[in-house]
């Protein structure tokens, strides 16, 4: 019983720190977020942050993981509503680009993420995404929907395109216009992958 209560307390402490970090990183950004203010907002000490995450960068990585997991759930829901696998894939890509308009995703994932954690290609969550995308594209090639191309190569090209387009949207002076242009261009690019282009 005591062990379970301790596990609950550890989970609650981590959740409180992640929530406080997410609020701070999402509103004022990583550089301006003070560890003292952040831990005070969580009702904890800097020692708790060091114990659970090592440092502010470790907490930021945990926040980014949480946001990424939520984005994945949302994107899978978009894909699940589609009438077929290919439409679902396209809708999921478009939804990812549209998320670049959301302030929290813009600041934490697209702006501060690369500055704090380095090249997104080195993030474990990005490599997981590429593996999942490769599996889905492989099925579409097997079904004859897509041209007989290497699914991993296609996944990496699509992933790179969506990443750079999302960065462009997040930093554009007119993000809505950039989203429209990126989505139109991305749709045309995806059409080129079909066995029989529309």
UniProtKB/TrEMBL annotation:
Pfam families linked to this entry: TetR_C_41, TetR_N
DNA-binding region: 34-53
Keyword NADP: no
InterPro entries xrefs: DNA-bd_HTH_TetR-type_CS, Homeodomain-like_sf, HTH-type_TetR-like_transc_reg, HTH_TetR, Rv0078-like_C, Tet_transcr_reg_TetR-rel_C_sf
UniProt keyword terms in alphabetical order: DNA-binding
SUPFAM superfamilies: Homeodomain-like, Tetracyclin repressor-like, C-terminal domain
Any one GO MF annotation of this record: DNA binding
Protein name: DNA-binding transcriptional regulator, AcrR family
Residues covered by the HTH tetR-type domain: 11-71
């Amino acid at each position: 019983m005591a062990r379970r209560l301790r596990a609950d307390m550890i989970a609650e402490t981590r959740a409180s720190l992640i929530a406080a970090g997410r609020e701070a990183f999402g509103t004022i950004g990583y550089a301006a977020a003070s560890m003292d203010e952040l831990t005070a907002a969580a009702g904890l000490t800097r020692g708790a942050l060091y114990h659970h995450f090592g440092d502010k960068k470790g907490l930021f990585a945990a926040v980014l993981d949480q946001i990424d997991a939520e984005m994945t759930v949302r994107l899978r829901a978009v894909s699940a509503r589609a009438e077929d696998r290919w439409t679902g894939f396209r809708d999921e890509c478009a939804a990812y680009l549209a998320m670049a308009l959301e302030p929290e995703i813009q600041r934490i994932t697209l702006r501060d993420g690369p500055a704090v954690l380095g090249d997104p290609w080195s993030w474990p969550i990005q490599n997981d995404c590429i593996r999942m995308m490769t599996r889905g594209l492989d099925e579409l090639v097997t079904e004859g929907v897509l041209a007989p191309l290497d699914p991993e190569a296609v996944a990496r090209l699509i992933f790179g395109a969506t990443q750079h387009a999302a960065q462009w949207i997040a930093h554009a002076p007119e993000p809505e216009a950039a989203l429209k242009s990126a989505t139109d261009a991305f749709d045309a690019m995806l059409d080129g992958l079909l066995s029989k282009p529309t």
